[in-house]
Amino acid sequence: MTAKSEMTVGELAKSTGTKPETIRWYEKVGLLPVPPRTPGNYRAYGPAHLRRLSFIRRSRDLGFTIEEIRTLLGLADQRDRDCGDVDAIARQHLAEVEQKIADLTSLSAELRSVIGQCHGGKIEACRIIEALTPQR
After folding, report:
1. Secondary structure element (H or E) that encloses residue 45, with its range
2. Which of 33, 71, 111, 113 shows its CA 20 to 30 Å from the CA of 83?
3. How confident is the model at residue 2 (pLDDT cuts 50, 70, 90)?
4. 3-class state of residue 37 by DSSP
5. Angle between the 47-61 and 66-76 helix axes, to the nearest 10 degrees?
6. In whole angstroms, what is the distance from residue 34 CA to residue 56 CA?
7. What angle do CA 14, 18, 19 make, to 5 degrees?
8. pLDDT the model gives residue 1
9. What is the mean pLDDT of residues 56-69?
10. Residues 6+ apart with CB under 8 A from 77
11. Based on C-alpha coordinates, what's the Rg of the chain?
């Protein structure tokens, strides 16, 4: 992260690994406050924008939805509040991630089984094609 007190959208983008278009979209949907303009009419992002955008990026990296991030940002702005709601959001997200992992593990096992039935040869006798074809 840069220690500059004022940054252009390009500098903010580079500091956070976020595309300028994405930064503008975050502004449009209300996740990132619209920055003030310089006398030359450029957006002037400050340290608070950098912190907030870094929070958004990290949250996205962890798979939180835009609405979950919106809620988390709202909670983060209430520094004296109990963190139980944050914990609940994180636990729910973890449960969803773990369910996806279980689903993918099951899918992987099924694909291994289908692939394991393939012994080469002609398509007409292909066990993979047979397993993918609906039975009538």
Report:
1. none
2. 33
3. very low
4. strand
5. 140
6. 15
7. 95
8. 45
9. 97
10. none
11. 24
